[in-house]
Amino acid sequence: MTRNYEAVIGLECHAQLLTNSKLFCSCSTKFGDAPNMNTCPVCLGLPGALPVLNRVAVALAVRAALGLNCRVNAESQWARKNYFYPDLPKGYQISQYDRPLAQHGFIEISVEGIIKKIGIQRIHMEEDAGKSLHEGFPDSSRYTYLDFNRSGVPLIEIVSEPDIRSSAEAHDYLRRLKEILEYIDVNDGNMEEGSLRCDANVSVRKVGEQKFGTRTELKNINSFRFVQKAIDFEIKRQIDVLEAGRRVVQETRLWNADEERTVSMRSKEEAHDYRYFPDPDLPLLALDPESIKQVAHSMPELPEARRKRFVQEYALSEYDAGVLATTRALAEFFEETAKLSGQPKSAANWIMGDLLRFYKDRNTDLKDLSTSPVKPKMLADMISLVEKRTISGKIAKMVMEEMCLTAKAPQAIIEEKGLLQISNIDEIEKIVSRVIEENPKPAEQYRQGKTGNFGFFVGQVMKATGGRANPQTVNEVLKKRLAG
To answer: Over the stretch 360-369, which tens digit does the pLDDT of each residue have?
Structure first.
């Protein structure tokens, strides 16, 4: 809320479905192949070519709808969205309009401790367009190249209700949306490759007004941070326009990341501009209740449910549960470690501390920990060794580092490097006696009441044992010996 105005924001997100082939043909959806390599008469829109629906894409779209609390419609209809652009070879896009796949869902967000539901108006399926590559701009020798590899790639468009009131709410909505889609294996969340894209509809109105203001659409923003910045800029720009006595123009604007401002692209299209009509080449998409039930039964536990369960079942803080449930792979890694070790809090601490630091340093993707050198059993075994006092916490850190670097089991590392903890009281007594003899002055000061130097003696003993002495035993023996 700014200067007695409030923002009204709705988000439209395009998510590429994780299929091997396109929505209406068998061409590959692989990213990064040579331009126009993955094309055929269907996705190039050649005369006489007919679309054949990809069933896997439909199942993934239903999965997304269920994960976002939507009602899946028994029947939905394919429509032609007509517009003319070089990267749209047919002159229309196969999409859905007045009869979408799913409707009336929500995502629960939390900003500054306030929980709020953001409605999802609809989810519809559609095919992607191709890609225009521009060179030479702004010179007069500008060239545009067309790559149709992406043409026909299966998408779902997720349209929120205009329930969002700030860029912070928009950011949390997008974060949770991405998290859910990745958890249920519908989308890989890669905004840089364009597999998840976001457009924002932004308007402002006086606080207390019910009527919406004139909206602008911010298109194709490729990071959550830029979405937040673009929305903040646009809110301020629109308020400035209104307070100057002018009116906001309905238009499409782009985010200029270098100048950190939005710039006008074109006047905003309305639905009638696209001249939607049912696609005559495709029948109604009919889904029987049993097929929807099968998809529902295959759904994994969703991230919010998992966070709540981690708090209840493992007595974790909400913060720890939130970090550990960031990705499905990380959550499963934690849970397996916790069950094998019987020490969920220790497992959480090691994963959130040393292990995540190792992953970050090596840019390991937390969505796929299958290539991680440390496995849940290895970490659980190390935690058990600490609990049994076979190794100290300090030694455990050394073992953890070695596990990350070599993928060796903790027992093997301990044996190779001679890291077993010294718990034999006779051996520790000998070392303590030697340390006290070598430091007569501090020992006398301790006996005269300057007990603050006790830590000095502990440090000397640990140094003499290479950190392998049992700390509790060291403390007990030192106190007795220093007491005379």
So the answer is: 888 777 777 8
Give the tokens for residue 207. 């606080």
Backbone phi, psi, residue 464, to 5°: -65, -25
SS3 38: coil
The per-residue pLDDT for range 194-204, each reduced to its tens digit, is: 899 999 999 99
Contact in structure between 145 and 131 (CB atoms under 8 Å) = no
Nearest of 245, 206, 248, 238 to residue 1 by alpha carbon: 206
| Gap between the Cα atoms of 114 and 25, Å rounded | 45
- The identity of residue 369, as a single letter, is L
Q: Hey, CA dihedral for 64, 68, 73, 74, is it positive or negative?
A: positive
Is residue 72 a contact partner of residue 65, using CB atoms and an 8 Å limit?
A: yes
Contact 23, 153 (CB under 8 A): yes
Q: DSSP secondary-structure letter at 398?
A: H
Token output for 59: 């199942």
**Residue 462, Cα to own-chain centre: how many angstroms?**
43
Helix pair angle (454-464, 440-447), 10° resolution: 140
CB 447 within 8 A of CB 484: yes
What tens digit of pLDDT does each residue of 38-61 get? Answer: 999 999 999 999 999 999 999 999
Q: Are 352 and 320 in contact (CB under 8 A)?
A: yes
- Reference 95, options 64, 122, 63; nearest CA is 122
pTM metric for this prediction? 0.85
Residue-wise pLDDT for 420-475, tens only, equals: 766 667 777 888 888 888 888 878 777 877 777 788 887 887 888 777 777 778 78
- Is the pLDDT at 140 greater than 60? The verdict is no
Distances (CA, A) of 49 to 45, 75, 87, 155, 447: 7, 25, 18, 21, 95
Averaged over 93-105, what is the pLDDT?
A: 97
Residue 267 has pLDDT above 80, yes or no: no
Please provide the DSSP assignment of 1-21 as one string: -BTTEEEEEEEEEEEE---SB
Taken in order of first residue, the domains within the chain and their CATH numbers are 5-291 (no CATH), 301-417 (no CATH), 425-482 (1.10.10.410)
